[in-house]
């Protein structure tokens, strides 16, 4: 059974009560909220995710709740809670929905040192995946959202998970976080995709969440093999250009962007080394999305031909 | 400007964790991971060469001696190129706290 | 229902756990900061294969985090050596940093956030200068805290390194000067032990580490980590117990340092809650298992509630009162009553700053 099989009333009731139990890739999550206005968009963002009522083990017990005391009504706040712990300072109530997403990301970075967690987007064609590490200003999320709406499946927008035993990427297929100008760009580029209302004045500017495609969610159990590491950089007016990157530079880029590289110690060193051994490594400059997609499609075609 | 008397040697901590250091071959040279220091470095071949030259307890080498050693390894290389590479390598290794500089009149010895 | 203590005492019991039990166990362990230690306990008891995949990931994650710390703490010890050597001060590590640097079983599976060192009282000023020269800075924020720490507590205000962000506590005694018990720091320093693989770095001797842990445990006002600290003691005692004669030395040392009381309590709770093996003659000599009347009974009640993981699943209706009583008792042991009232009043007016992070998914620099 999927989230979309619940009526909105049922979804709301569970969300405000014992919680919605769903799977995001390898993680079982229980979501609770005493902020009813986020139910509608939340249900749409996770429409295709499976309910897991038959699975009692939950990896992340999370919730977004109203502020304490007066802050429930005056300059109302939202708080993110994971199993009775609040790792963040409260945010304005209007940001409750992205706060839930940021909180779920936090859980992965805090509790998952059995795998390598890279701050990068990842998308796949079939079994072959591209990892896009994400320095600010790279336009990673826009590029990711575009790819996902042109035949690539979403593994993750923000945190790429690498198994230490096989080196495969485990997808999360959670919503994509879009900022500022890219919101309108993606609305135009993918009119059928579901985007939430824009949320203003966050620390990242204006933010909207885009639902993952149904195909991405349904294929999330198929782990992918890293085939390409592409460091994107948006530069207005440029042509889409791939430049091969030395494996040493690629190593340092990946290690730099790996959230728990240092925690993993020698295991992290080996995991990153294994990735760059398998991947073709590039830096990538682009401006027009269609050109960028064409480059990626070409990479995929090359990959199939081998 | 480097005074002629400067000699370089391995830093004290280099040897403490040496047995655990991991290397990986990459296009530009090697990636060196030191679990004790928690440091990951990308080393070009010349830099590794200089590090290897100094990774002997008690050994000191001046810039000139290192350049000479490089030129012997690479007879076809231009001496000025070697000088520039060695200077860059020493800079990088000092920054990474793997080696240190000591004036040659100093009584310090590892 | 205390799955955590049960799993820790009897690792084979995890075979009987259902999926929902595992969910609760992981959460209890996380609240007690014992995720990694539990994993290692189960692993060394040979039952790792009985841990289902998802809980296994969480437990392993905790252990991985703890194991990398070994390097971080050794690095800090080296930096400290570098900073204090010019002042002729020996680095003597205490508590978690000592366990890690010495490779003791008590180091395993647990995260230690601060490095603690001990030095002679008269060298405190020199040490502070030498440390500041090498990049450590004081974290005491207001004048009250500065006075509180320097005058009444046993340490300089906590220090933090400006670049590395590592935390350091400098002690000249192991209990505050205002406490009723007064163990002699000079005896501790004299008995300190050099680390064979970290020249110039010492730790307290094993009996002294045990006594320090015991005295700290039952003088602490904050209950959150008591269970975890008790597991430290359990591991230290088991390590000591490899040499059966060392027990007698421990009791004698406790007398010498005036810490027989805390040791008695520590032995009592380690044995009763965690099953720490205790030779009969030691139990008899220390009278740690004897029931000594109403006060002891009340204390047992308080500690039994507080030594459980601080998780809603293990609380009962007495717990809030128990927690408050513990806070008051601990501060009574540490400070004369007049000071205590002043201190508590001050803390109520200026609530302690919360440990929270600014929300950001940007990579930390």
What do you see in this structure?
The complex is a heterotrimer of chains A (306), B (110) and C (365). In chain A, a hairpin with a 2-residue loop joins strand 6 and strand 7 (128-133). Chain A is built from 10 helices and 16 strands. In chain A, the strands form 3 sheets. In chain A, strands 6, 7, 8, 9, 10, 14, 15 and 16 form an 8-stranded mixed β-sheet that branches. A 5-stranded mixed β-sheet of chain A has the order 1-2-3-4-5. Chain A has a 3-stranded antiparallel β-sheet with strand order 11-13-12. In chain A, 33% of the residues lie in helices and 29% in strands. Chain A has 2 domains: 3-111, no CATH class; 115-305. In chain A, helix 4 packs parallel to helix 5 and helix 7 (247-257) crosses helix 9. Chain A has 306 residues and is an alpha+beta fold. Chain B has 110 residues and is an alpha+beta fold. Chain B contains 4 helices and 6 strands; from the N terminus they run βαβββαβααβ. Chain B has helices at residues 12-16, 45-54, 63-73, 79-95; strands at residues 6-10, 22-26, 29-34, 39-43, 61-62, 99-103. In chain B, the strands form 2 sheets. A 3-stranded antiparallel β-sheet of chain B has the order 5-1-6. In chain B, strand 2 and strand 3 (29-34) form a beta hairpin. Chain B is globular and about 35 Å long. Mean pLDDT of chain B is 85; it is low at 106-110. Chain C has 365 residues and is an alpha/beta fold. Chain C has one domain (3-349): Beta Polymerase, domain 2 (2-Layer Sandwich), CATH 3.30.460.40. Chain C has 16 helices and 7 strands. Chain C is globular. Chain A binds chain C through residues 28, 55-59, 61, 83-84, 86-89, 91, 99, 102, 105-106, 111-115, 119, 136, 158, 203, 256-257, 259, 262-265, 267, and chain C through 18-20, 22-23, 27, 30-31, 52, 54-58, 60-62, 64-65, 67-68, 71, 311-312, 356-363.
């Amino acid at each position: 059974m999927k989230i979309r099989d619940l009526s909105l009333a049922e979804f709301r009731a569970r969300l405000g009560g014992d919680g919605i139990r769903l799977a995001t890739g390898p993680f079982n999550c229980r979501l609770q909220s005493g902020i009813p206005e986020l139910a509608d968009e939340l249900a749409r963002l996770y429409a295709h995710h499976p309910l897991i009522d038959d699975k009692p083990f939950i990896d992340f017990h999370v919730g977004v709740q109203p502020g304490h005391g007066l802050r429930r009504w005056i300059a109302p706040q939202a708080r993110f809670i994971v199993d009775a712990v609040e790792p963040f300072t409260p945010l304005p109530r209007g940001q409750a929905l992205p706060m839930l997403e940021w909180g779920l990301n936090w859980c992965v970075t805090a509790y998952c040192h059995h795998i390598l967690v890279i701050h990068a987007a990842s998308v796949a064609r079939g079994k072959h995946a591209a990892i896009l590490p994400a320095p600010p200003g790279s336009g990673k999320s826009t590029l990711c959202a575009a790819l996902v709406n042109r035949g690539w499946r979403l593994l993750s927008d923000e945190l790429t998970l690498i198994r230490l035993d096989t080196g495969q990427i485990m997808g999360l297929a959670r919503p994509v976080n879009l900022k500022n100008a890219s919101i309108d760009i993606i609305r135009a580029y993918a009119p059928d995709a579901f985007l939430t209302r824009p949320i203003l004045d966050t620390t990242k500017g204006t933010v909207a969440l885009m639902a993952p495609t149904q195909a991405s969610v349904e294929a999330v159990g198929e782990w992918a093999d890293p085939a390409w590491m592409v460091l994107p950089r948006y530069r207005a007016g440029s042509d889409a250009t791939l430049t091969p990157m030395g494996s040493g530079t690629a190593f340092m880029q990946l290690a730099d962007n790996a959230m728990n590289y240092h925690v993993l110690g020698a295991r992290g060193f080996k995991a990153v080394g294994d990735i760059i051994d398998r991947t073709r490594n590039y830096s990538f400059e682009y401006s027009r999305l269609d050109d960028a997609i064409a480059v990626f499609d070409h990479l995929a075609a090359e990959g199939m031909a081998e | 400007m480097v005074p002629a008397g400067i000699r370089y040697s391995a830093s004290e901590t280099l040897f403490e964790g040496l047995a655990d250091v991991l290397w990986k071959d990459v296009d530009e040279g090697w990636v060196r991971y030191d679990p004790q220091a928690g440091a990951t470095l990308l080393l070009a071949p010349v830099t590794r060469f200089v590090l290897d030259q100094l990774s002997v307890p008690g050994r000191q080498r001046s810039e000139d001696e290192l350049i000479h050693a490089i030129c012997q390894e690479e007879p076809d290389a231009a001496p000025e190129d070697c000088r520039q590479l060695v200077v860059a390598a020493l800079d990088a290794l000092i920054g990474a706290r793997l080696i240190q500089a000591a004036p040659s009149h100093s009584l310090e010895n590892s | 229902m205390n799955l955590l203590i049960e799993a820790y005492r009897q690792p084979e019991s995890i075979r009987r756990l259902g999926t929902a039990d595992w969910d609760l166990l992981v959460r209890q362990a996380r609240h007690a900061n014992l995720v990694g230690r539990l994993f290692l306990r189960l692993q060394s008891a040979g039952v790792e294969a009985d841990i289902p995949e998802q809980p296994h990931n969480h437990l392993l994650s905790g252990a991985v985090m703890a194991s990398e710390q070994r390097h971080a703490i050794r690095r800090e010890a080296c930096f400290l050596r570098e900073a204090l050597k010019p002042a002729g001060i020996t680095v003597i590590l205490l508590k978690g940093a000592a366990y890690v640097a010495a490779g003791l079983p008590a180091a395993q599976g647990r995260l230690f956030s601060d490095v603690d060192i001990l030095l002679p009282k008269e060298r405190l000023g020199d040490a502070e200068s030498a440390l500041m020269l090498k990049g450590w800075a004081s974290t005491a924020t207001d004048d009250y805290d500065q006075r509180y720490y320097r005058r009444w507590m046993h340490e300089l205000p906590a220090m933090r390194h400006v670049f590395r962000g590592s935390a350091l506590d400098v002690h000249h005694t192991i209990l505050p000067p205002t406490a009723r018990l007064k163990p002699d720091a000079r005896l501790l320093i004299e008995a300190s032990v050099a680390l064979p693989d970290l020249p110039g770095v010492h730790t307290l001797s094993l009996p002294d580490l045990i006594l320090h842990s015991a005295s700290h445990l039952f003088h602490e006002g904050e209950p959150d980590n008591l269970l975890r600290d008790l597991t430290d003691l359990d591991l230290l005692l088991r390590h000591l117990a490899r040499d059966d004669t060392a027990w007698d030395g421990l009791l004698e040392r406790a007398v010498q340092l005036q810490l027989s009381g805390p040791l008695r309590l520590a032995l009592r709770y380690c044995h009763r809650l965690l099953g720490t093996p205790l030779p009969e003659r030691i139990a008899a000599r220390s009278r740690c298992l004897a029931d000594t009347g109403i006060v002891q009974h009340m204390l047992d009640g308080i500690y039994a509630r507080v030594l459980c993981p601080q998780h809603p699943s293990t609380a009962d209706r007495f717990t809030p009162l128990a927690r408050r009583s513990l806070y008051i008792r601990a501060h009574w042991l540490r400070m004369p009553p007049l000071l205590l009232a002043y201190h508590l009043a001050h803390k109520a007016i200026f609530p302690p700053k919360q440990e929270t992070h600014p929300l950001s998914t940007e990579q930390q620099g």
